[in-house]
Amino acid sequence: MAKGPNERMSKSRVVRLGGREVITEGLQLNFWADISHRCMTASWPAFIGGCALVFVVFNAFFATFYWVGDQPISNVPGRGYIDYLYFSIETLSTAGYGDMHPQTHYGHFIATIELFTGIFSMSLMTGLIFARFSRPSARLLFADTPVISDHDGEPTLMIRLANERHNIISNAMARLWLFKNIVSKEGQSFRRFYELPLSRNESPALALSWTLFHIIDEASPLYGLDADDLESLKVTLVMVVSGYDVVAAQTVHARKSYDYPDIRFGHRYAEILGTARNDDRPCDYKISYWKHGGRARQDHNFRGPKAVNTQRPIQRDGEHVVLKFRPRTSAHPPGHRDEPDNQADSGPAANVLSRYERPRDEADDFRHRMLANVAALAFTVALTAIGIWLAMSIADMRKTQDCVLMGRRDCARISAMPHS
């Protein structure tokens, strides 16, 4: 493949992907072909330094054209290059103090080109700065190590995360992937990934902390594996969390990867949520973030990953129950304790599910809520109409006042309140 004039073979560089380092070489790079990505991925010192360098180069370039001309700018003492440089900065930034100005066709032509360049470059720089500042970030704090221990009687992989900003991330969704090396029948090595199903992969409102659980059963890729097996397969876990940030009004994403040495068998996370009691607020919750990323404590009751081979999924009768539908305006929800006919139809499953139901003191008053919404809408419309009327009245009075000050006789009369 022939290389263009601006293309060159890249040098070997080390790219860090998660906890691994990858050496890349042999790419044909064009600096200007992906300049937007370079501006977005550069660090803030490099980005600001690059913008300052471009600003200085542009001004020095146009100052040279002014300097070689035949007095294109007026009021330049001694025709010094530094004075033309100052004039170029004022022109490129569209400041224009007025002391120095073009006085020849040559000067006007160079100033016109510089004004166009300044408007274009300033708009581009403003857009890049806004894009860098407006990039959404989740600010999620992930645990240092995943742990595998018993949970509800089953070996479970657990990963914990917390929200550092204490804002609400609504409709948070988490997905967990496992990467491992496999060898095909032809002897070729591949890096294959599998999605690990989570017990609860959605959260309506992520504000404090969230612990994710993956049950290691016969369908799990981690079934029957120990630490040595994870090392031989070069296992990597990748956690991806996304949700809607209600403050930034944007969808945010966060990602965390763990290599096989980070996974701890027979350990359990320390409790980070508790209650704080004092004189002012006796029932406040307390979350200890210093325990979040710390070392997990060992679980001596864990039977080990090989014990999974003797376990079978637990099946219970009545696990799937169909409840009778009742509208929201009903005084008694399905499975309510005060409804004997519903219990007779559902059998013992209704008694099990009834503990999750909360008795309602009164039915939802749909009409009351609709009347309140209509009243609020009418009040908003009335305030808007009053504001428009006041704005139009003030504008008419201002026109009449200007007419009187100009000495005209055909001005509209301004009505005033009579004095008592």
Question: Any overview of this molecule?
Answer:
With 420 residues, this protein is of the alpha+beta class. It folds into 2 domains: 125 residues, Orthogonal Bundle (Helix Hairpins); 171 residues, Sandwich (Immunoglobulin-like), CATH 2.60.40.1400. It has 8 helices and 18 strands. The strands form 6 sheets. Strands 5, 6, 7, 11 and 14 form a 5-stranded mixed beta sheet that branches. Strands 8, 9, 10, 12 and 13 form a 5-stranded antiparallel beta sheet that branches. About 8% of the residues have low confidence.
Structural shape: flat
The CATH homologous superfamily of the largest domain: G protein-activated inward rectifier potassium channel 1
Query: What is the highest CATH level, the class of the largest domain?
Result: Mainly Beta
Which percent band covers the strand fraction?
15-25%
Task: Sketch the topology as an H/E string, one letter per element.
Answer: EEEEHHHHEEEEEEEHEEEEEEEHHH
Q: How does the helix and strand content classify structurally?
A: alpha+beta
Task: Specify the biggest β-sheet.
Answer: 5 strands, mixed
End-to-end gap: 95 Å
